[in-house]
Design a protein that fits this description.
Radius of gyration: 21 Å
Low-confidence stretches: 1-44
Structural class: mainly beta
Helix content: under 10%
Shape: globular
Strand content: 35-45%
Mean pLDDT: 85
Length: 401
């Protein structure tokens, strides 16, 4: 796994999350962040279903399941939480996810389930395995595709107590959200750019949970890191340790919507080398950033901007395509890139990630084996350049704008 394209380490040195107070966030950010709206930290709404008679774990999920259009299907990315309220250990055997029409979208068992289930230890979802001790809780990361959005998804969880060889079942139905994803115009020009993300990475945006004042947040659920790459696969035009030599460094970052600037932070300096970039505090991990208010309590975050490059102010109205800053290396980043995500709160950490799509881009290739990034030429798409309209870029595809 190549770690430099992730900014997951920007807040905590450990996997699975961290615990801080909101007061400490505000104190460390004092003088750096200008905010036009109050930050809200409401408990996440959930649908809850107690174990049915004979069941062995409680299962809960979001109040409704968000969706996003991808190339050829609709993606549902969300989390289920399991709690063993019995007095003995439980083995989770299988999870089936079904569409309302009865079509099975996913069947997780054995190694598939083990890759998606994480047990909570001291407020961090970090332990592997499928066995829940009495009182233990776990999270299951669900990512399924369907040909239609529909109205609801059904979940059938099979488990068993260690004292019994007979499996038990728990079922949970969750409605699908009627909200459409945010549409953003391209955040950069030209390219090629790699749209870096993957639901399967344990240390990627999708699986990084912040535990703050007892509440859990995943702001990067749909986050993408855009990394510059050449036609021959290089991510730097000089020394790999010099951020100024990175492909795309200093390129203009563009507003993705007609919006109001809700927050700006500048003044976070960049390290002179990639390897020497120090750890930053929780509130400074995003580096210099601009947040745009999109309406409906939705905010677009453009992070790790170059110091001194931000050209907008809080309260200013911006237009689609307007330059708001430049791609940089500020904050907890292991290489210059643009981090883009949409969330339901005006804080890079205290908010939950929402789906978004890019209005138009060309998909020209990708990295089937991401460990080859920076070493090999990216694989061209077999059907030549594909123009995508209002979809979320796929995992590690190479795009141009």
């Amino acid at each position: 796994m190549i770690g430099w394209v992730f900014d997951w380490v920007r807040t905590c040195p450990t996997r699975g999350g961290c615990r801080v107070s909101l007061a400490s966030i505000a104190a460390s950010a004092l003088g750096l962040t200008l905010v036009a709206h109050p930050v809200s930290a409401k408990p996440p709404a959930v649908s809850r279903a107690s174990a049915v008679p004979g069941g062995c774990v409680d299962i809960s999920g979001p109040a409704s399941i968000a969706w996003v259009a991808t190339a050829g299907s609709f993606l549902f990315s969300y989390e289920l939480r399991l709690t063993n309220r019995s007095g003995e250990s439980v083995r989770v055997d299988q999870l089936a996810v079904e569409h309302e029409n009865g079509n099975q979208l996913a069947l997780y068992s054995s190694s598939d389930l083990d890759r998606r289930l994480r047990i909570k230890v001291l407020e961090r979802y970090q332990a592997s395995g499928l066995d829940l001790a009495p009182g233990a809780s776990a999270i299951v990361y669900v990512d399924v595709n369907a040909k239609a959005v529909g109205r609801r998804l059904r979940h059938r969880l099979r488990c068993r107590h260690f004292s019994s060889s007979s499996p038990a079942a728990t079922e949970l139905k969750i409605p699908i959200s009627t909200d459409r994803p945010v549409v953003l115009a391209p955040p950069l020009r030209d390219g090629p750019w790699i749209a870096v993300h993957s639901s399967g990475w344990d240390k990627g945006h999708r699986r990084f949970i912040y535990v703050i004042d007892g509440l859990e947040y995943i702001p990067g659920r749909y986050a993408i890191d855009f990394v510059g790459v050449t036609a021959t696969g290089q991510t730097t035009v000089g020394g790999p340790d010099d951020p100024l030599d990175a492909v795309g460094y200093g390129q203009p970052v563009l507003a993705g919507a007609n919006a109001v600037v809700a927050a700006v932070r500048d003044g976070t300096e960049e390290s002179r080398s990639v390897s020497a970039n120090p750890a930053h505090g929780l509130s400074l991990g995003a580096g210099n950033y601009v947040a745009l208010a999109l309406g409906g309590n939705r905010f677009a975050f453009y992070e790790h901007l170059r110091p001194g490059s931000i050209s907008v102010t809080v309260g200013e109205r911006v237009r689609v395509g307007q330059v708001i800053g430049a791609l940089g290396f500020s904050g907890d980043s292991t290489g210059p890139h643009l981090h883009l995500h949409v969330a339901n709160g005006l804080d890079p950490v205290v908010s939950d990630g929402l789906p978004f799509v890019i209005s138009r881009f060309r998909e020209v290739g990708g990295y089937p084996d991401f460990t080859r990034l920076g070493r090999d030429v990216w694989a061209p798409d077999s059907s030549a350049e594909l123009t995508r309209t209002a979809v979320w870029p796929g995992e590690n595809v190479v795009v141009t704008f």
